[in-house]
Amino acid sequence: MTLTKQFIALRTIFVKEVRRFARIWIQTILPSVITVVLYFVIMGQLIGSQISSVNGYPYIEFIAPGLIMMSIITNSYANVVSSFYSSKFQHHIEEMLVSPMPNYIIILGFMLGGIARGITVGITVTLTTLFFTRLQIHSIVVVLFTLVLTAALFSVAGLINGIFAKSFDDISIIPTFVLTPLTYLGGVFFGIDMLPNFWQQVSLANPILYMVNSFRLGVLGISDVGLTTSMSVIIGFLAILFLTCLYLLNKGIGIRT
Amino acid sequence: MTDHALSIHGLSKIYNNEVSALDNIYLKVKMGDFFALLGPNGAGKSTLIGIVTSLINKSAGKVRVMGYDIDTHFSQAKSKIGVVPQEFNFNNFEPLMEIVKSQAGYFGLNKGLALEATEDCLDKLGLWEKRKDTPRELSGGMKRRLMVARALVHNPKLLILDEPTAGVDIEIRRSMWELLQTINMAGKTIILTTHYLEEAENLCRNIAIINHGKIIVDTSMRNFLERLKEESFILYLRHPIQNPLNLQGYSYEVLDGRTLEVTLSNQKTLYELFSVLNQQGVAVLSIKNKTSRLEELFFTLIKNSSG
């Protein structure tokens, strides 16, 4: 398959994915907005008003980048895992499998779909945030890099979950029991310097900490970890997950008998 | 350039539960052929199709499509195949137009070509009026036609149909036959699996029968049908039979006054039978095979091969 044809195949998956989540925007876009509004009202205004500033920022402003990042993580993951598993469940994944497109195009197509939903939700949530607090952008480059790479990473993670999933229960286990705890413990609501030394060290093993902090650095200019370390962790995880995913699809695991 | 649209060498498939679905299969399908792949349920037909179309991993063997090895030249091989699976496998929430157009996109057709091919296929399959509907709004026959339209959109050289007329009414089945014959006459190779044996008999020039994962017949339809040692016919007579019949050398039964069932060995001809009947003043109005000839042979063969 020539590069031009591969690009056409990639665009086809991408357009299909965007159409899918846009068609059901009440299920895909709106819930994150409502969740973030609740967080801002409860954590930001009611509880946050009782907390003194964190790293020189009001609490509501401190948690804003983390909440945006949390929405991007959960949505890019959810988009791919649900779309890929439904296509397995309804067997229309076979439309792609019988075609001549290489497996990396399938991964990239779903990944771009996940990034698109992550960014769409990210923008929507950011606009919602502006109703509650002001947001300055310290570095637009860091913001964009972190946003796209994190969405890409969790899209591929969602794809791996979708590959192994055998029932609809399987697509909610990882988000519920792994993703949500890691996100909550990843510094969305606190800086790790607020933790005892032992838990600070434990937190450093949580990859989401690096994404939240990198994004916070881009928005507020403050971070618990260095930018190079954060970017290395994100890119490293993305590369590992992408290659794992490619291996699984090439072997036909979860998709071929 | 190869003469074969499909060639299979030593193909085997053993599933994880140790069940052997295909056992060292060799098969060749000529370019332009209309080929029947028959066998009882669970014989291995769908496994074989699944391997050729890359939906099932093989355990051993080689498969070539239009001369391209599906392992080493998978992209070239897959671009030549259009497949109509047994089960409906489309997104039930997408409009027909999008389903077919996306398939064209997966095969690398640019926007203009994809749109043109989609319109053409939906039109040919009588689905143009339904293009904005989703599959949920279609009848079973329309869903089958949608799968054929989707399989044809990238203009494949080899069309594989896994029971394309299952569960559709006779009118749609006939129109599907006409369509498939037209497609075949246009130069495409067709491999058909079906449980309607008269369908295979009417459409296909060559035949393979698979049972317990092994090919037990691989020949032309004509050669295969010649194996039939006897054939039963139902004869509809112009007038009721008045006197007892004397059909020596024939096995027969009078079903009712104007209907006769006669079994003919392959040593005798219909001309001879008609002559004997004529001598006794019996005029035949029309005649039909009691069962499809292929059906008779198929059952005998499957029974024998199953031991």
Protein described:
The complex is a heterodimer of chains A (257) and B (307). Chain A is mainly alpha-helical and 257 residues long. In chain A, 76% of the residues lie in helices and 0% in strands. With 307 residues, chain B is an alpha/beta fold. Chain B is globular, with a radius of gyration of 23 Å. Helix content of chain B is 34%, strand content 29%. In chain B, helix 4 runs antiparallel to helix 5.
The proportion of residues in beta strands of chain B is: 25-35%
Oligomer: heterodimer
Mean pLDDT value of chain A: 90
Helix-strand makeup class of chain B: alpha/beta
Q: Which bin fits the share of residues in helices of chain A?
A: over 70%
N→C terminal distance of chain B: 41 Å
Structural class by helix and strand composition of chain A:
mainly alpha
Main β-sheet of chain B: number of strands, strand sense, barrel status?
6 strands, mixed
Write down how many β-strands of chain A occur, each being a DSSP E stretch of 2 or more residues: 0
How many beta-strand elements of chain B?
A: 14
Largest sheet, spatial ordering of strands of chain B: 6-7-8-3-9-10
Q: Segments of chain B where pLDDT lies below 50 for 5+ residues?
A: none
Helix/strand order of chain B, N-terminal first: EEEHEEHEHHHEHEHEEHEEEHEH
Low-confidence stretches of chain A: none
> Helical region count of chain B?
10
Radius of gyration of chain B: 23 Å
Number of helices of chain A: 11
Distance from N terminus to C terminus of chain A (CA atoms, Å) equals 24 Å
Features:
heterodimer; A: 257 residues; mainly alpha; 11 helices; 0% strand; elongated; B: 307 residues; alpha/beta; six-stranded mixed beta sheet; four-stranded antiparallel beta sheet
What's the topology here?
The complex is a heterodimer of chains A (257) and B (307).
Chain A: H1 3-23, H2 25-28, H3 30-47, H4 59-89, H5 94-97, H6 103-129, H7 140-164, H8 170-188, H9 197-203, H10 207-220, H11 227-251
Helix pairs in contact in A: 1-6, 3-4, 3-6, 4-6, 4-7, 4-8, 4-10, 6-7, 7-10, 7-11, 8-10, 10-11
Chain B: E1 4-14, E2 20-30, E3 34-38, H1 45-52, E4 60-65, E5 68-69, H2 74-79, E6 81-84, H3 96-106, H4 111-124, H5 140-152, E7 158-162, H6 170-185, E8 189-193, H7 197-203, E9 206-211, E10 214-220, H8 221-225, E11 230-237, E12 251-256, E13 259-265, H9 270-279, E14 284-289, H10 293-305
Parallel strand pairs in B: 3-8, 3-9, 6-7, 7-8
Antiparallel strand pairs in B: 1-2, 1-4, 4-5, 9-10, 11-13, 11-14, 12-13
Helix pairs in contact in B: 3-4, 3-5, 4-5
